[in-house]
Amino acid sequence: MATLETGSVAVLLAAMHPERVSSLILVTTTARYLEAPDYPIGVAAAAVDDLGELLANTWGTEELTRLAIPGYPEYHSHQALIQRASATPREAGDQFRYFMRNVDVRKVLPLVRVPTLVIHASKTPFVPVSHGRYLAENIVGARFIEVPGADLGVLDQDVTAEIVEFVTGQRPTVDVDRILTTVLFTDIVRSTEHAASLGDKRWRSLLDSHDRLVRDQLERFRGNEVNTTGDGFLACFDGPARAVRCGQAITKIASRLGFDVRVGIHSGECEVRGEDLGGLAVHIGARVGALAAPGEVLVSQMVKDLVAGSGIEFDERGEHELKGVPGSWKLFAVRG
Questions:
Q1: pLDDT mean values, one per 10 residues, the chain (336 residues)
Q2: Lowest CB count within 10 Å: 7, 169, 267, 331, which one?
Q3: Domains in the chain with CATH codes
Q4: Distance (Å, rounded) from C-alpha 189 to C-alpha 194?
């Protein structure tokens, strides 16, 4: 499976060495990026320069990961960390400029004779979906799947099932356990700026302090750590009031330690995936957390209704559209 600039390499390998490739999966990639007289769907040279500049200027920041995977805010800081570990901004900019200006494997597409699945995000600002359709139309027998949204390389359960069926010939059957729980998301505010200004050693010390703080409060309020995202946590609680009070304690202690944490909380039915949680309720919790102000605990209407009578007070924060979630959602900030 290959995506973005690695797709052309995978195409060449499949065309030139079919004995080494049993099947080919291409995710949001292209045979050629730059426009040409015989390739009108390509991107204009000026736009290529602008994109290369954008990548160089935002590499390793959440600004870039929000563009690349807007529908999954819980991954932003993690992906930004991976970028910083993989290349410098200058190296990344140079690599992408070379790829966008020079790569062209259109002539070898008819030589690809292995089973091929092409998956492409429909609204990504980086690689237009027409590039994916071109690949599928010019590789013999290729199958094309257009994935709604703009998220690069993020595959939902249905698309993953398509990939498994493509590779194995059998569609997986998954027995999903579901539980009703309250999810809590934490996130260090302006983590990229902190990392840049503090340096690696002091940033690591701050992260360690943050991790100890969150885990201490999870133990205090009987929450369960689900996973971490580098500078944030996903936890769950069997009682929404304890989740709210835990969030309050985390934000207050973090402020005393010299940094801000935002918290988002939602109650709903989640899928249990081993030690992890998934499903719409988790996505809602992450999106609520992303809208919280520095030092704020923001909750959904469901949480507010469930803690009625607990003495916890709220301030209205209006109705919001949550990315990828149907309808509008009333959100409330915990007071005090």
A1: 86 91 91 92 86 86 81 76 88 85 92 92 83 94 84 65 82 72 92 77 83 93 88 91 95 89 93 82 92 95 93 94 86 92
A2: 169
A3: 2-168 (3.40.50.1820), 177-334 (3.30.70.1230)
A4: 9
